[in-house]
Design a protein that fits this description.
This protein has a single domain, classed as TIM Barrel (Alpha-Beta Barrel), CATH 3.20.20. Helix content is about 45%, strand content about 15%. The protein has an 8-stranded parallel beta barrel with strand order 1-2-3-4-5-6-7-8, surrounded by 8 helices. Helix 7 links the parallel strand 6 and strand 7. Helix 2 runs parallel beside helix 10. The two termini are about 15 Å apart.
């Protein structure tokens, strides 16, 4: 029964299972290198990929997103677009991830197909997560749980928040912020359905090995 409840929690409104390693791409200009790194992450066990590139212009973002969509779909892994609903709709991506200033969940739900993923950043606020769930979010993300090189000024979230969210929410919970293979077990134990990782994954010498080290934490539960 407990395993069944866990499986239900892992499934968002899209029907996509949100669980395990969530690979979030770095600001990489070389599209060929980016796709190779994402392929390696998927080979290591990444179950979901988010395209995030804050340094690229709109043309390059579209080029990279299309390339990554092909790679992800070739391996049966969904691709979510960070903070750009227009791009997600244009290339028919598997979903979008929205921050607090990136448009409403309701609008994303109206513009995307019913089976698409809509993720919401909720930082360290459980009330925001409850509101996102009501609005139709597939999953909610909390963080930063640890100091982050990508977002050094991010608000801090406590492990207790994951425990509270596990009780209060019916949608999957993603943990973000400074996550490594060394500290990820704490988040999994506290109730995270998935961990979103950038630096510890894509800055590693062996991306596939780094992915496998984190992904296997979820198979050991």
């Amino acid at each position: 029964m407990q395993a069944l409840k866990q499986n239900e929690r892992d499934m968002g409104k899209s029907g996509c299972r949100i669980r395990g390693l969530y690979a979030v791409t770095p600001n990489e200009r070389d599209t060929a290198r980016l796709t190779a790194m994402v392929q390696a992450a998927i080979a290591g066990g990444a179950s979901l990929v988010q395209y995030r590139n804050k340094a690229a212009d709109s043309s390059q973002r579209r080029q990279q997103a299309v390339a990554l969509l092909k790679v992800c779909h070739a391996h049966g892994v969904p691709l979510v677009i960070n903070d750009d609903l227009d791009l997600a709709v244009e290339i028919d991506a598997d979903g979008v991830h929205l921050g607090q200033d990136d448009g409403s969940i309701e609008t994303a739900r109206e513009r995307l197909a019913a089976d698409r993923i809509v993720g919401a950043s909720c930082y360290n606020r459980l009330p925001a997560a409850l509101a996102a769930q009501r609005a139709g979010a597939t999953y909610v993300a909390f963080g930063s749980f640890f100091p982050s090189r990508v977002k050094p000024a991010a608000v801090s979230a406590a492990l207790q928040l994951l425990q509270e969210a596990k009780v209060a929410l019916a949608v999957p919970v993603v943990a973000i912020g400074g996550i490594t293979a060394a500290n990820a077990p704490q988040l999994v134990a506290a109730g995270a359905n998935s961990v979103a990782v950038i630096s510890a994954l894509f800055a590693a010498r062996d991306v596939e090995a780094a992915a496998r080290q984190i992904a296997q934490l979820f198979s050991l539960e």
